[in-house]
Amino acid sequence: MTQIKNIGLFTSGGDAPGMNAAIRAVVRSAIYYNIGVTGIRRGFEGMINGDMFPMGIKSVSNIIQRGGTILKTARSEKFKTVAGRKAAYGQLVKNNIDALIAIGGDGTFRGAKEFNQEFDIPIIGLPGTIDNDLCGTDFTIGYDTAINTVINAVDKIRDTAESHNRLFIVEVMGRDSGLIALRTGIAAGAETIMIPEGNTDIQALFDRLENGRPDKTSKIIMLAENGKVGDAFEVGRLVKERFPNHDTRVSILGHIQRGGSPTCMDRVLASRTGVAAVEALIAGKKNVMVGLVHNQIAFTPFENATKHVTELDPDFLKIVEMLSI
Fold this sequence. Notes:
This protein is an alpha/beta fold. It folds into 2 domains: 6-142 and 262-305, Rossmann fold (3-Layer(aba) Sandwich); 144-258, 3-Layer(aba) Sandwich (Rossmann fold). It contains 11 helices and 11 strands. The longest helix is centred in the middle third of the chain and has 22 residues, at 143-164.
């Protein structure tokens, strides 16, 4: 058992629905164990600048249903430098912080791992990213909300596609991971899904469109951003050149995928992992991410958690092939 007196809590990187639920869980479980919590605004950047404040029960009231993060978030170039990390550690000492809980993704955990190696401060991570691209957890906080947001949008796009006999190319987030595009493509009944992990090139897309049912009154192509072929506008241009008779349109969903009230699944995931993070610090754990694997709390070292998943379940791709006819 480790005697932790004051936990520094921050969110970092891209925001994700459910981060506030995680903040609430950390603060209230820490208070349950008679441990103080200091909120750090704007991630590592706020840590460097000493933008910190004490958090109590009331500071996390009425936030479990809110999207975004009340602690704000930012990316920090200064923290990538030795001088920046040294300044951050000085602020932690000044504010009597003896452990950290970081809510974020792979960039957050890489920074946390390096910080721990230099200053030996215990750090526990919570997986907060809509991309679901971390190892050591079945789902990340924010992913379920994001894919439901996409589904709601694509269902509406399908309505107008049906009305006008249109082909829509829908671009979703997932710079290095196509999991959002993959799951939402299956759920939305997309004709083709183009993701970084797949082998769908432009010719494969052309073949699918040429050999598909001629009587289909709408077609949806799901595309992960920064794909091999290009962005949605480039894919749209190529499709228009090859199929000039198709009424082809492009829709980029963008940052609406990050916002909104978190789903029940994300709220529960955030609550369970938030409590587990506090209990992990008390038990003496450090440099690990808390996740949920087969519905059980699991701990994964930061260096393993940040290895992106590059192989997708082939059954998912087979489902797309079978159901898009």
